[in-house]
Structures are given as C-alpha cells and as structure tokens.
Amino acid sequence: MVIVSVQEKDVEITKSETDTAVTLTAQEGFKDYAWLIDGKAPSSAISGASVSADGKTLTFNKANLVHGTSYVISVSAKNSYDIVQRTSLAVKKQEAE
Predict the structure, then answer these.
(1) What are the helix (H) ranges across 1-97?
(2) pTM
(3) Residues 38/45, Cβ–Cβ less than 8 Å
C-alpha cells in the first residue's frame, strides 16, 4: 500500500493505484507541468519513474520504493495568468493492512 499525504495544494492531484504501480495526475487547466521527487527529476529519484509527454502524469513502480521511506513529490504548473502554482505531497510505502 502507498500512502499519499498532501502538504501544500494549489494544483489538484488524483492518485490511482494498481498492484504494481502508482499514478499521480495533475488537474487540467494548467501548462508547463514539472514534477520533482525529493528535489530531483523523477527518474533520478525513483528508478523507472516516468512523466507523460504532456507533463500531467507521474507514474512509478511500487517495487522501486524503499519500504518505510517518505518521498516528497511536488508538481508545479502555470495557470492562465502564467503564475506558477505548486502542490507538494509525501508518498510512503507501507505494509498492507
């Protein structure tokens, strides 16, 4: 199980989870989406993490998360006035209950 805790919210994030992967999708209506995990490009922070071509979606495999480690994930995007909006959240892999 992967726990997602929102810390700061300007851009809505939707989480979907399968047995093997977690996908985080940023809301529509923004542009120039940029994802970071622990301040790094997603693929540098979690092996196999990827961002969709349009930048709205981040996907990573649960098997590549270190059990008990909390990852700080942030997404920033520009609104219609070119003002950057951010959302930060923490992701942590836990044992299934």
Answers:
(1) 42-45
(2) 0.85
(3) yes
What's the CATH number where 83 sits?
A: 2.60.40.10
Contact partners, residue 67, CB within 8 Å, separation at least 6: 93, 94, 95
Determine the structural domain holding residue 81 and report its residue range. Answer: 2-93
Which residues partner with 86 through β-bridges?
76
CA 90 to chain centroid: 9
3-state secondary structure of 45: helix
**How many domains, in total, are found in the chain?**
1
The 10s digit of each residue's pLDDT in 25-56 is 999 999 999 999 999 999 999 999 999 999 99
22 membership: H or E segment, kind and range: strand 21-26
